[in-house]
Amino acid sequence: MKRAVIAGGSIAGLLAARVLRDRADEVVVVEPDQLPAGPVNRPGTAHGEQFHVLLGLAQELLTHWFPDLLDDLVAAGTVVCTPGQDGRMFVDGRQRPVVPGDVLVPFYRPLLEWHIREAVLPSVRLVSDRVVGLVGGSRVNGVRLASGSVVDGADLVVDATGRGSRLGAWLAELGFPAPPRQRIGLDLGYATALFHRSPDERLDGLLAVHSLRSPTSARPGVSCIAPVRGDRWMCTISGYGDDRPTRDPDEFTARCLLEPADAFAALARTGTPAGPVTTHRFPHSIRRDFHTMPTFPTGLVPIGDAVASFNPIYGQGVPSAALHASALAAWLDTTESSTAYFRRLKVIVDTAWQTSATEDLRLPHVTATRPLTYPLQRAISTALDHAAMTDPLVAQRFAEVINMRIRPTDMLTPTVLGRTLLANLRKP
């Protein structure tokens, strides 16, 4: 391959560049943001100042491409937390069983992106512009830019422009249909505040706390606390619809005091704010089903949120982007058509979508159409979730699903279902 062009320089685009630099003579990344010279947030990542965590699979995939990345993050102040010893997960105030193995890596999004940029961009060509269309017809060989120029001569164009991707409109200009879409309206809002942290300080004896308020609770959502950049606590709270949090610091404190996990009240009572409350709104989850398209131009593929964007409270964004990059690498090493790439993406998207959508559809305010099999899916999911609170084997498998190492359907084994049944029969 002589030239590959990537529209978008966020994490998905950078991972695509990392894959393509081993397979193309030249890689061009087109990014409209002026990329900062350090770990500073930029306009294209409106959620960059919010809470992020690297799930187990993301840690493994990123370390594969960037062996020193986790060490670099730790050297820059990222605090790695050991389950049980440093971190706890709660559901409606009840502690989940500790599952040994994976470490919890809360991270500052601009820091992670900057380290990946530092590893990738020196070996690619960066164009500061915005892609507004495609060049070609049945075969795409370049992109049109907002400045009026083009980058052509491409053997492959990758759309990594995120959840707001205009690929459907670009395809229409070439005479192709837009990909079918599925959408779940969430109206999720979350708010984040930083607090000063002294060396070795803990809250309720912990470094990291993840508190889920289930869809059946009075105020569904997720709240998280963890240290970032060494001398700061980052605290995020979330809510849906009319219960979305605001930038009001007094309201933020009141929400922390109501949180069923004690660490939040401890932070609210003793912590010193280190900045304003920042908010972000996530209107809906969306997936674009490219695998169903009867025709698609050659020389073009999407990646990351341009394919699917999920409820962020499940932390699936970075590992999904990494899995897409792995699928891209595997596909490029074959002579198969893009249909084979889309089949690989479908497996990845289906897994993440099932994990998040099954729970999202339990939210009372969500009006999306439930599939005919949803009552059965919900019953099984509820039973497994209850069993994971008491049975160590079910808890282990549940953690593997959360960390995206296995699919939700992989839990449906006779052993796991049998233990789930016993756990639910013992339910008071």
Give me some keywords for this one.
428 residues, alpha/beta, FAD/NAD(P)-binding domain, D-Amino Acid Oxidase, Chain A, domain 2, 3 domains, eight-stranded mixed sheet, five-stranded parallel sheet, globular, oxidoreductase, monooxygenase, monooxygenase activity, FAD/NAD-bd_sf
In short:
This protein has helices at residues 11-20, 56-65, 69-75, 109-120, 167-173, 249-258, 262-270, 317-332, 338-360, 374-387, 392-402, 414-425, and strands spanning 3-7, 26-30, 52-54, 87-91, 94-95, 105-107, 125-127, 131-136, 140-145, 150-151, 156-159, 181-196, 208-213, 221-228, 232-240, 278-288, 300-302, 308-309.
Task: Give structural notes.
The protein has 428 residues and is an alpha/beta fold. The chain folds into 3 domains: 3-41 and 114-179 and 292-358, 3-Layer(bba) Sandwich (FAD/NAD(P)-binding domain), CATH 3.50.50.60; 72-109 and 183-282, D-Amino Acid Oxidase, Chain A, domain 2, CATH 3.30.9; 370-425, no CATH class. The chain is built from 12 helices and 18 strands. A hairpin with a 4-residue loop joins β9 (140-145) and β10. α1 packs parallel to α4 (109-120), α1 (11-20) runs parallel beside α8 (317-332) and α2 packs across α8 (317-332). The chain is globular, with a radius of gyration of 22 Å. The mean pLDDT is 93. InterPro entries: FAD/NAD-bd_sf.
Alpha-beta content class: alpha/beta
Estimated radius of gyration: 22 Å
Q: What's the helix count?
A: 12
The domain tally reads 3
Morphology? globular
Keywords: Monooxygenase, Oxidoreductase
InterPro entries: FAD/NAD-bd_sf (IPR036188)
GO molecular function, one term: monooxygenase activity
Protein name: FAD-binding monooxygenase
